[in-house]
Design brief:
This protein is an alpha/beta fold. It has a single domain, classed as 3-Layer(aba) Sandwich (Rossmann fold). Helices cover 43% and strands 14% of the residues. The protein has 12 helices and 7 strands. A 7-stranded mixed β-sheet has the order 3-4-2-5-1-6-7, sandwiched between helices. Helix 1 crosses helix 12. The longest helix has 17 residues. The radius of gyration is 17 Å and the shape is globular. The protein binds adenosine-5'-triphosphate and magnesium ion. The site of magnesium ion has 6 residues, from helix 1. Adenosine-5'-triphosphate (ATP) binds next to helix 1 and helix 10.
Length: 261
């Protein structure tokens, strides 16, 4: 069966895309799923969640990152790296991704290049899930990420400005559907919720008023373990299984897996 392909996208920066992509991946792997992660952001934070800084620099120098694959229009199978977790593989990013919009400009059918390069891996039977992390932009590259995906998860930070710009994200998804009609918003994930502040409840209530858009039951709370895990090039799910956020990401992975099955 083809891998379920899910991207994490929101043009709002710092909304928890990378943290959620890495941890949902690690949690799905813990459920026994074979996971491929694709780092689509020049910040390389997803790559840094599985490799230390020296390894990330070596990966970037290897010429085998998402950037070279896109520029050379090469199938992505040769770009897959094994992480320390046998169920998690990763296609690394590089700072060169800062010029991806310019590179795409010269390509034919430029909105669907990633979908074409990912097609073989998706159908290979090697992975149950492919999770793609996006940068906080809405250009041609993120259009590629969305059109290569079956589903999008939109992480939203539980702050007064967390919902600001969400309408742009919905409009953008509608535009992608013109190329990729099957794309579906799997759900909105409330992240960095802080119960000491009332915004969290208010954000969830506002989100529930949206028609036909799922808000995940799982909510990710603010948890310093997330940052400690990132400091150790790890996910909180593997670094501190007993932490609140690790349990929340495990619950989210179950929720996602039930919907996709
Ligand atoms: N549950 C959490 N508890 C505490 N800190 C968190 C949590 N989730 C994310 N963070 C922190 O918030 C910051 C932003 O998170 P993250 O990098 O996942 O967002 P992003 O949407 O990928 O950002 P960008 O738009 O820059 O790519 C990071 O410093 C991360 O460590
Ligand atoms: Mg990020």
């Amino acid at each position: 069966m083809a891998a379920h392909t899910i991207c994490f996208a929101n043009n709002k920066g710092g909304s928890g895309k990378t943290t959620s992509c890495a941890n949902t991946g690690a949690a799905l792997a813990m459920l026994g799923k074979r996971v491929l992660l694709v780092d689509g952001d020049m910040q390389m934070n997803l790559t840094l969640s599985f490799f230390d800084e020296d390894e990330v620099m070596d990966l970037a120098k290897s010429g085998k990152t998402i950037f070279e694959a896109l520029v050379k229009e090469e199938d992505l199978s040769a770009y897959v790296r094994q992480t320390q977790d046998e169920n998690i593989s990763l296609i690394p990013s590089t700072t060169l991704m800062s010029s991806i919009e310019m590179e795409l400009f010269t390509k034919m059918r430029r909105e669907t290049l990633l979908a074409r390069l990912l097609r073989k891996l998706k159908g290979s039977g090697s992975f149950d899930y492919i999770l793609i992390d996006s940068p906080p932009t809405l250009g041609n590259w993120v259009m590629n990420i969305l059109s290569a995906s079956d589903h999008v998860i939109i992480p939203v930070e539980a702050t007064p400005w967390g919902l600001f710009g969400l309408a742009n994200m919905f409009d953008f998804t509608e535009r992608v559907r013109e190329i990729s009609p099957e794309l579906d918003i799997l759900g909105i994930l409330v992240t960095k919720a802080d119960e000491r502040k009332n915004y969290c409840r208010q954000v969830r209530e506002n989100l529930r008023e949206l028609d036909n858009i799922r808000v995940f039951d799982s909510v990710i709370h603010v948890d310093s373990a997330v940052e400690w895990a990132q400091d150790s090039s790890s996910t909180v799910v593997t670094f501190k299984r007993a932490s609140r956020s690790a349990k929340e990401y495990m619950q989210l992975a179950k929720e996602v897996d039930e919907i996709c099955r």
